[in-house]
Structures are given as C-alpha cells and as structure tokens.
Amino acid sequence: MYIPFKLLKKEHLEELARSTITYLVMQYFNWPGLGTIQVAMLHPYKEYLLAEMHLIQMPQGSCILYSLPDDKRSIESLLESKEHLIFLNELIEDGWQNKLARLYYPKIKRSIIDRQLFPMLNNIEDIEVSFQLELGQLSIVLNDEHTIHKEPFYDFVAGKLKK
Predict the structure, then answer these.
(1) How far apart are alpha carbons 41 and 8 in whole angstroms?
(2) Spatial separation of the C-alpha atoms in residues 83 and 5, rounded to whole Å
(3) Judging by DSSP bridges, how do beta strands 137-143 and 128-134 pair with one another?
(4) 119: exposed, middle or buried (C-beta count within 10 Å: 0-12, 13-18, 19+)?
C-alpha cells in the first residue's frame, strides 16, 4: 500500500507546538485497503481565520479544529491509538503522482470500464490520469481530450461513487 503523505510522528507534533502554529485542522478521509482504521490529515495554521475557512469548505463532520498547546495531549492520544493513522499535509516525494497512478492503475482502469465513464473511447490507454491535492482532498482527474472527469480518489478506486 502506498500513501503519498508524510506520517505524523510525536516529534512533528512537538515541533509544531514549539513553532508559531496555533491551530490544527484534522481532516478525516478514506484510503483504500485500510478497513476500519480512521485516517486523517493534519493542517497547521497560524491564524484562526484561515483554519476556520478550511473547516467551512469541507463536508460537515469531516474536520476537527484543535489548538496548541491546549489540545496537544488529545492529538498525542490519537497518535498512540491503533485505530488512527494521521498524516501531515506534506508529500513524501516528488514522483508521488506517477507512483500512485502505477500502483492503482488496475483499480482505476476497472472503475473506468465498470462505470462506462468514456463510452466513446476505443482505447482506455488514451485516458490521461492525473491527481490534484486541494485542501487535503486528493482527487483523480481523467481526461480523454474531450471529457474531463474529476472526483475524490479514495472513493473512485473503492468504487463508491456512480457515474
């Protein structure tokens, strides 16, 4: 399994607590193959207004606002839990898009075919696959030069959304 984000460790949380970061938005998301483990991405903010804007743009209930140092222990307890996997909103490497596309290509291809997203297409290899990361939401973008299809990556490869 490949997840392109930097795993949050206790040392990272300590660094954030010592920095000028005051607010942390923890945004929950799904990732294929993790079952019941709750996966989240931590977004640090210096200003309350920016953190609040992030919360407003996300589906209700998908994010929690924490403040440092008050909520540091709460986040540490999540890090110690076997039911949680928390990442920073940092990518671990430059070639993450290519690696993600290569590893999940069979699921991507199967989803395109099963859902008939590009019915006029003769060759599935003609579809360009790319990814966008916006506010912690990873989306898959499919393009056949005539049609662009974009949706959350996690749901797409899990087959949760319909055409």
Answers:
(1) 9
(2) 18
(3) antiparallel
(4) exposed
Residue 150, pLDDT score: 92
| Residues 46/20, Cβ–Cβ less than 8 Å | yes
Question: If you ran DSSP here, which 8-state letter would residue 114 be given?
Answer: H
- pLDDT for 8-37, tens place per residue? 999 999 999 999 889 999 999 888 788 888
Kindly state the tokens that stand for 133. Answer: 């990361």
Structure tokens belonging to residue 7 = 């795993």
The H or E element spanning position 136 is none
**Axis-axis angle for helices 10-18, 72-80 (nearest 10):** 170
Cα 144 to Cα 84, 108, 120, 124, 128, distances in angstroms? 37, 14, 10, 9, 6
What is the DSSP code string of 55-108?
HHHSPTTSEEEEETTTTHHHHHHHHH-TTEEEEEEEES-TTHHHHHHHHHHHHH
3-class secondary-structure state, position 27: strand
